[in-house]
Amino acid sequence: MLKYLLLALVVIWLFYSPALRGKLKGKPPAPPKPAPASTPKQAENMVQCAHCGVHLPEGDTVKDGHGHLYCSSAHLQAGPSQA
Ligand SMILES: [Zn+2]
Predict the structure, then answer these.
(1) Dihedral, CA atoms, 49, 50, 52, 57, nearest 10 degrees?
(2) Domain limits at 6?
(3) C-alpha angle 59/60/61, rounded to 5°?
(4) Can you give the pLDDT at residue 83?
(5) How many domains does the structure of the chain reveal?
(6) pLDDT digits (tens, 9 = 90+) for 9-21
(7) Which residues surround ligand 1, an ion (CB under 5 A)?
(8) How far is the centre of ligand 1, averaged over its atoms, from the C-alpha of 54 (Å)?
(9) Residue 34 CA to ligand 1 centre (angstroms)
(10) Residue pLDDT, tens place only, 41-67
(11) Would the pTM count as exceeding 0.85?
């Protein structure tokens, strides 16, 4: 009887363990897609990263849901820095 109780606890622990849950589902986090280059042959817009302020071509930016542009997905996750 105790054996089944322990087994149930292990199963519950496995199910709720976030580290293992990610592996079991086998779903890697999708990288954010860069904006599609829909502009015709023109000089590319230079924009500023909302986090670190570096200037880069608009096509190389990562956009978030609020219209902010970032130089990398790391800065996208860090969010805008407006001191
Ligand atoms: Zn940046």
Answers:
(1) 0
(2) 2-31+43-78
(3) 95
(4) 57
(5) 1
(6) 877 787 888 766 5
(7) 49, 51-52, 71, 75
(8) 6
(9) 14
(10) 667 899 999 999 999 999 999 999 999
(11) no
